[in-house]
Amino acid sequence: MNQRGVTTLELMLVVVIIGILTMISMTEFFKLHNRAYVGAALSDLQVIRKAISMHDAEWGYFPDVNSNNMQGLISQLLDPIGQPYLTPPSGDNWRSFTYAAPDPADLTADYDLTVICNDHFSTQITVHWDSQIDFVRLTP
């Protein structure tokens, strides 16, 4: 009698193939996930940089107080009638935020905005006043 069915070896082979495909797809998912955090944090920083530029255009100077939180910086970014230049980003894309104010005595000094992203690499993004951007992965 001719029996048809699936052997244990064939079943194990299918399970191994499914496992390999799952590992490959999860690796790609994490890459996209990391890129999304970094891209969103960079976009938020560009919005804040533009608000700082509007403050500079209106008042003639950059905010001159260092801040380790976004709310502290945004509280300084007010137009002449006391309204903020921007609605603050959510801040969910990073763990830490730092605004390094320029030295008020140095008219050519610049500021830096630095965040550490919530991605798997703890990517540090620094945006300078002249739009130069530095990326550093803090964990390999």
H-E string: HHEEEE
Please give the largest β-sheet: 4 strands, antiparallel
Structural Rg: 24 Å
Distance between the termini: 59 Å
Average pLDDT, to the nearest integer?
87
Query: Which percent band covers the strand fraction?
Result: 15-25%
Tell me the strand order in the biggest sheet. Answer: 1-2-3-4
Overall structural domain count: 1
Tally of helical segments: 2
In the predicted model, the low-confidence regions spanning at least 5 consecutive residues are none
Strand tally is: 4
Shape: elongated
Structural class category: alpha+beta
Q: Could you estimate the helical fraction of the residues in percent?
A: 40-55%
Description:
The chain is an alpha+beta fold. It has one domain (8-137). Helix content is 41%, strand content 17%. It has 2 helices and 4 strands. The chain has helices at 8-59, 70-74; strands at residues 94-100, 112-117, 123-128, 133-137. Strands 1-2-3-4 form a 4-stranded antiparallel sheet, covered by helices on one side. The longest helix has 52 residues, at 8-59.
Any key phrases for this structure?
4 strands, alpha+beta, 2 helices, four-stranded antiparallel sheet, 140 residues, elongated, single chain
Structure summary:
The chain is an alpha+beta fold. It has helices spanning 8-59, 70-74, and strands at 94-100, 112-117, 123-128, 133-137.
